[in-house]
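Notes to self after the Tuesday call (sharing in case useful).
The group wants a holo model before anyone commits to mutagenesis around the pocket. I volunteered. Ligand is zinc ion. Logging inputs and output together so the record is complete.
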Amino acid sequence: MQSWRASLLRFDEHGHAVFDRDGLLVTGPGADGRTVVIAAGDHAALQPRYAQVPCTHLPGRLIAPGFVDMHIHYPQIDVIGSPAEGLLPWLEHYTFPHEAQFADPAHAAESARFFCDELMRHGVTTALTFCTSHPTSVNALFAEAQRRDLRLIAGKCLQDRHSPDGVRDETEQSLIDTEALINQWHGVGRLGYAITPRFAPSCTERQLRGAGELAARYPDVWIQSHVAENVDEIAWARALFPDSRSYLAIYADHGLMRRRAVYAHCIHFHDDDRALMRDTHTAAAVCPTSNLFLGSGFFDFAGAERVPFAHGLASDVGGGTSFSPFVTMRAAYFAGRAASTGLEPKPGVSLSPERLWWLHTAGAARALDLEGVVGNLQPGCEADFVVLHPEATPLLARRTRAAGNLAELLFALIVLGDDRVVERTVISQAK
Ligand code: GUN
Ligand code: ZN
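Result:
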C-alpha cells in the first residue's frame, strides 16, 4: 500500500464534489491485484488507521481523479488547427489525407506513442478514441496503451462510401476486421473495443446493419460515432436515409443505440432526439472546442437537463484544439453561456465549476458505463489520478491563493489552467 497527503477532490454518487483541504489518499492492490483506492478522506481522521503505510506528502498540491475524454481521434494530432469552412470541407481537405497515412504501421506506432504521451501529460487517464479505417492503426494504439496500462477504448472506423481512396474500406471485410479486433483486444487488461461507424453518411445501409448486428452479438463492447454536428452534414444524412425520422434515428434504426453507445456532438437535436438518447441509455460526448473551431454550433446543456440523457466532455482532437481538460472545461463554460444569444434565444446556462469538473471525470465515466471504475477517487476505483499544482504560474498562484472556497479554486483552475498545472499523472498498475 501507498498513501498520498494533499488536498483531495472526489465526487459523491449525486455528482457533488467532496473536498478535503488536508486529505489522504490510500492506494493498494484490489481483488485482482490492480492498484485501487483503498481509502480517501480527511488526513487527521484516516492517518491513525494507515500510520504504517508509506506516505508521500505533497504540500500545496491538489489530488483529483484522472480526466476522462469521451471522444478523441488519435490519428488527428497533425490535423489540429487546420482551418476550413466547416466540417465537410475540413474532412475532405485535411482529415482524410492525414488518416490515409495510417496504413503504414510505423507511422501509426509513432503517432500512438506521441498521442499517449500527450494524454498523460495533460492528465487524461481514460479515453474513448477513434482510430482510422486501417486495422493497423488499432493494433498500434492498443499495443501502446497496453504497454502503459492506460484505460483506453478504441475502434476501427467503418466508412465504405463517400470516402476517398486510402481511407475507404470494403463492406464485408470491414465487418470481419471489426469482429477480429474485438476478439483480439476487447477486455484485454484495461482495453475495450468500440464499434466505430464514422458517421451515417460514410456508411452504406449494409455496413450500418452489420455494425448493429455486431453490437447485439457483443453487448459489452462500446459503440462510437458522430451525430447532428453540422447543418450540411445533417441535410446529407437525411437525404441518404429518408426513411429514418431524424439523423439520430438512423442509428437507432440500425441497432446502434444502447448502453455503451456514445455519439459525439449531438448539437442540433429536438426533444424527441433527446428522449431517444434517454430511453436507449445512449450517451453524448460534448466537444466544445471542436464545435467552436469548426463553427458547428453549441451543445444545449439546458436541453440535456430538460429531457435528461447522459453526457460528458470530450476534446475531439483534431477538430478540437487542445488535449487539455482545462481548455475543454473552459470552452464548455463559454458554450453554455453563449447558447443564450443569437436570433433564436435559448436559455443559457452558467455551469458550475464542480459540474464542469464532474462532466470530465466521474460524470464522463458514468456516461461510458464505467462508474465506480474510473473518473473518481472513492474506495474501489482504479487508482488513476492527477497531482495538480494550483500555483503553477504567477497568475494562477496569485488567483488561487485568493480563492475563498472550493468553487473559487476550481473556477480559477478552469479559467487559467492548462498542462502546466498537471504536475504528475499516476496510472493504476496491474499486479
Ligand atoms: N464526422 C465524421 N468524421 C468526423 C471527424 O473526424 N471529426 C468530426 N469532428 N466530425 C466527424
Ligand atoms: Zn470526432
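Two things stood out.
Residues 175 and 350 are 43 Å apart (CA to CA).
The chain has a mean pLDDT of 97.
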